[in-house]
Amino acid sequence: MKISAAVHRDFTIARIDDRLYSAFIEHMGRAIYSGIYEPGHPQADERGFRRDVLQMVKDLNIPAIRYPGGNFVSAYRWEDGIGPKENRPTRLDLAWRSKETNQVGINEFGGWAKDAGMDMMLAVNLGSRSLDEARDFAEYVNYPSGTYWSDLRRSHGVENPYDVKMWCLGNEMDGPWQVGHKEAKEYGRLADETAKALHGLTPDAEFIVCGSSNDQMPTYPDWERQVLEECYENVHYISLHKYFGNSSKNTLNYFGKIDETGRYIQAIAGVIDFVKAKKRASNDVYICFDEWNVWYHIRDQDTQRWKNWDWPEAPDLLEEDYNFEDALFIAGLLNEFIRRSDRVKIACIAQLVNVIAPIRAEKGGPAWRQTIYWPYQFASLYGRGDALRIAVDGPTYDCSVAHDVNYLDIAGVHDARSGTVTLFIVNRHLEEAAELNVSLHGFAGARLEFHKVMEGHDLAATNGPERQDFVAPVDGVGLGVEDGSLKGSLAPLSYHVVRLAV
Ligand code: AHR
User: Fold this and answer.
1) CA–CA dist 80, 201 (Å, integer)
2) Is 172's C-beta closer than 6 angstroms to any atom of ligand 1?
3) Could you give the domains of the chain?
4) Hey, which residues are catalytic here?
């Protein structure tokens, strides 16, 4: 199939917020315990954190990490995780029917996040708890000294405050499964008051209010409207969550869910605009897509397991094995985030290690990168700058979730600082190669700096402890710049990262 596309230096969508490539990690399953933290592991450092896992995290250049939950946060007492470890209580984690030993708390995690070069995006418990605990937590974390909570932090060996700028006001409060689930207005009021109180403590902080848990919730999108009507002027972002899967075993339909996600983003942007207009507000609220990933391979099976198990400690939970098809899907989803970067400013892959994660780590054993690690890494490393508005002319298909889906999924970023344009391209056609011609306007003298490709795998191919880099990028061939255009052939079902010096 023939595809022509055009980019122009001056036709941009938005300046991409670096935090579009953030991540999420929860006290859940083996994400923290025997994921990032495993004292006694041959790779553990003096504080018990795994060096092998930390290196894989660092290589992703993640700007920010959302912590500690997730559903977990809605019944969490943050005070259980501070002070001498031997005095910390073991508690029942109501969200995942597990035991939480509290051996990792805010100070251990804060040190680890700093080592990994990530800012923290902290969630407060607005499920079983309320404004008072949130402000105590913020004071412990952010206030320099001379008060009860700040001096307590200093007595715990952390002299300087963490200066956390991003605060999530609860998690999925629309979900009946959530501990302390609330009605929209009730939650909106609490979020508003909490934001106001925390703003007093940390004037330059930004607040993320809970949107719907997903676009299938019966209260969506009225939840967003009602919540924002209560708190619009005092918050900065509204959250979106969405998990994906190819349960119907229809690859093109699976890829079509990316277009469906574009509609989801558009709908929330419309609600934001509606509330802004209704309130005659002058501030803008953006989207924080703070949970996204593929989650379906073992979802049903695990749901049955954890609902019936007897409160184990750090059980294996949601340890999805990602395949090549998932990597192509994630590449396209990240492209959609770039294309919607005018409204989506923060996004967090959910999660980071072991639990629905790009990195896996065996207890006492090796760590490895899953197939989806690669598109996430490429987007994070090279997707920073101005998102380019790309016109594409090529064949499309219809499926049950979307119409007119382009076989060729493309996003582009111009980074004036490094003098580069990076194109992220997925050929989603099941059989046909794409004969590509991208005309590069305003980028005279463009030359190919590198071309990485993932292709030629069975869609079901996975990585694992024994074959760690089976599905991994290699150098691409056959693409080049000629007469001001990028030209070449892209194999069916292939993913390409093309970096041009401009
Ligand atoms: O990421 C797993 C869970 O998915 C989170 O705890 C929750 O917020 C969402 O439902």
Assistant:
1) 22
2) yes
3) 2-10+387-501 (2.60.40.1180), 17-382 (3.20.20.80)
4) 172, 291
